[in-house]
Design a protein that fits this description.
Elements lengths: L23 E2 L18 E3 L2 E2 L19 E3 L3 E3 L2 E3 L8 E2 L10 H10 L2 E5 L2 E4 L6 H11 L5 E2 L1 H8 L15 E4 L12 E4 L7 E4 L2 E4 L1 H11 L2 H13 L5 H7 L9 H8 L9 H12 L6 E7 L5 E9 L4 E6 L1 H4 L2 H18 L2 E6 H5 L4 H10 L10
Parallel strand pairs: 11-12, 17-18
Antiparallel strand pairs: 1-3, 2-4, 5-6, 7-9, 8-9, 10-11, 13-14, 15-16, 16-17
Helix pairs in contact: 3-4, 4-5, 4-7, 5-7, 5-8
Length: about 375
């Protein structure tokens, strides 16, 4: 089986797994600091205050510092001279850029050059800073009112789960929720919804209030397009943030809420062993075609008990395997040749028939996947599919 890869946002063949970490709280955003006034600024800033709510740690792995509780601001050479991070590495809003000597042209140029990142609409941060949870909280704190509760895909972003489809532009408009009849703030930098939240639905990470992992996962299951909703549920369970039993326990609180019917159906299809959004979508296509639910991450053992291969999805009794070939690990000719040799070996040594499907086949509208799987299983698919 090809090696697992860590979570990145967004990606083709990436793992949902993220490193567990103790959550850190952040102080309110300090005053803006111009790069010209940083001669005595320390080289490293550490944010390590305890969080007000303890969340279960995950045992999985992530290499991108998404769950780190410290943010280092490295000094690096730019054109032969040392350059300090803009605004000391802290995020800032577009309307605050003039205080740092940055105009609209400079912002656009620096984003294109990678000097700045634009994690949220009209929010910028120096490109050398780590994209960790603390920084994401600081970015959201710049644009949200004090009473706001971060919700939906923005909350998933803080928890380290990608709630976006593979072709959606990953430039978020932060989403937050207010109680009914509280009134919505008109601000194009944010999107406001009204919803009823109970005490267990809200947790605090430092200065930020956001929906709990369970409520966030169920909200995505209710509101996202069907395949991305299942991918988000798989991601939350794969990282260990939420268990399937917790999802089932949270559903009764959403009785009569919009989209709860889809959420109930998708919770029954959750597979914590899923390792990428492509596997989630492929599995959903198979199930929606009326075929039996395939097993995930099937281990192929050698006579001495060693794990020789792993297959994304399949039916062990029939020795039929189905895999998602994402571009990250299957895009080059050498990788494709390796896949072909691996599948020939699976057939020769272990008697397995394994078919792989790329992004175009899995996301496309044509029923090629359903027809091919139906031929393998000697079953007629249910067409057209639901989405």
């Amino acid at each position: 089986m090809r090696p697992l890869s860590p979570l990145t946002l967004p990606c083709e063949r990436t793992s949902y797994r993220s490193a567990g970490s103790r959550f850190a709280a952040i102080r309110p955003p300090p005053p803006l600091v111009s790069p010209l006034a940083l001669s005595d600024h320390p080289r490293t800033t550490t944010i390590a205050a305890p969080a007000t709510t303890r969340i279960r740690r995950s045992s999985a792995h992530y290499d991108g510092a998404l769950w780190m509780t410290t943010t280092a601001m490295p000094f690096f050479r730019d054109g032969g001279s040392m350059r300090t991070p803009i605004n000391a590495g802290r995020p800032f809003r577009r309307d605050q850029a003039s205080d740092l000597g940055l105009n609209a042209y400079r912002l656009t140029r620096d984003v294109a050059a990678g000097v700045l990142r634009r994690p949220l609409r009209q929010v910028y941060v120096d490109g050398t800073t780590a994209d960790d949870r603390d920084q994401r909280i600081a970015c959201l704190a710049l644009v949200l009112p004090e009473h706001a509760v971060v919700w939906g895909r923005s909350a998933a972003w803080v928890w380290g789960v990608n709630g976006f489809g593979p072709d959606e532009r990953h430039l978020m408009t932060p989403e937050y929720v207010v109680p009914h009849h509280r009134g919505r703030k008109r601000d194009r930098r944010v999107r406001v919804v009204e919803a009823a939240l109970t005490a267990p639905d809200v947790v605090e990470l430092g200065a930020l209030r956001l929906t709990s992992p369970t409520r966030t996962a169920l909200d995505l299951a209710r509101h996202l397009h069907r395949p991305w909703a299942l991918a988000a549920l798989d991601a939350f369970t794969s990282t260990g943030l939420v268990g399937v039993s917790e999802l089932n326990a949270g559903l009764p609180r959403l009785f009569h809420h919009p989209g709860v019917v889809q959420a109930r159906e998708l919770v029954r299809l959750v597979e914590p062993k899923t390792e990428s959004w492509g596997e989630s979508v492929l599995r959903l296509r198979i199930i929606d075609a009326g075929f039996p639910r395939p097993e995930a991450q099937i281990e192929i053992l050698a006579p001495d008990g060693r794990v020789v291969y792993r297959i994304d999805l399949g039916y062990p009794q029939l020795r039929i395997g189905i895999e998602y070939d994402g571009e990250d690990h299957h895009g080059t000719r050498a990788q494709q040749q390796h896949d072909e040799a691996r599948r020939r070996d699976l057939g020769r040594r272990f008697g397995w028939t394994v078919h792989g499907y790329g992004r175009g086949a899995v996301l496309g509208r044509r029923p090629g996947v359903e027809l091919a799987v139906g031929e393998l299983l000697n079953l007629t698919p249910r067409l057209p599919r639901r989405w």
